[in-house]
Design a protein that fits this description.
- The protein is mainly α.
- 74% of the residues lie in helices and 0% in strands.
- The protein has nine helices and no strands.
- Helix 1 packs across helix 6 (112-120) and helix 8 (162-183) packs antiparallel against helix 9.
- The chain starts with a helix and ends with a helix.
């Protein structure tokens, strides 16, 4: 096999590992990513799998990065080029609801960010917990930026507390994830849209 083909094959294998890791972690949690089980499901040896990542921690971080890319592609990128402020915030919220309702193939156990936040919120500092917190802070900052722009432009009431509104929006989507995953509630996406409409004034 030529070096080029060998490198391409290694990339494909790494992609398969990450895709399966994301799906498994959404159900079992990031700590549930056992090398033995993952290798067995992919028809690989443990040493062969670890050869792509080195440690379980690196595999967890790779799964988080992939989940972040999926989330960004589904929720942020469709709205990114809209004017900052309320229009973009509403588009992001709609895409967020759709993402939580439809990304079942990638995340059979629900949003990996919700799973990982619950899993790591009480743990001490470390690379995985820090990565989870960093991803959540990045998303919070994006929400806050559009909320503040909307307030400054008069699209939201001047008395709006941006941090409080971002907190409440996050709470709505956490509830949606739980309702869909725990109860199979097919009315939850519409309930989410009604809640968001009240929060955003329309």
């Amino acid at each position: 096999m030529s070096p080029r083909k060998s490198a391409a094959e290694a990339r494909r294998t790494r992609e398969r590992i990450i895709e399966r890791s994301v799906a498994m972690a959404s159900v079992e949690g990031l700590e549930g990513l056992t090398i033995g089980r993952l290798a067995g499901e992919l028809g690989m040896s443990k040493s062969g799998l670890l050869g792509h990542f080195g440690t379980k921690e690196e595999l967890q971080l790779a799964a988080l990065r992939r989940a972040s890319a999926v989330f960004s592609r589904a929720v942020w990128e469709p709205a990114r080029d809209l004017p900052p402020g309320l229009a973009r915030l509403r588009a992001v919220c709609e895409a967020w609801a759709t993402y939580l309702d439809r990304e079942r193939d990638t995340f059979p156990g629900g949003c990996l960010f919700t799973t990982s936040a619950v899993e790591f919120d009480a743990r001490g500092p470390g690379p995985v917990r820090d990565a989870v917190a960093r991803l959540h802070r990045t998303w919070q900052h994006r929400l806050l930026a559009d909320i503040r722009t909307a307030v400054a432009a008069g699209e939201l009431p001047a008395a709006t507390d941006p941090e409080q509104l971002a907190f409440e929006l996050n709470g709505v989507y956490l509830s949606l994830n739980h309702a869909v995953q725990l109860f199979g509630d097919r009315t939850a996406p519409d309930r989410t849209r009604r809640a968001v409409a009240r929060l955003l004034g329309g």
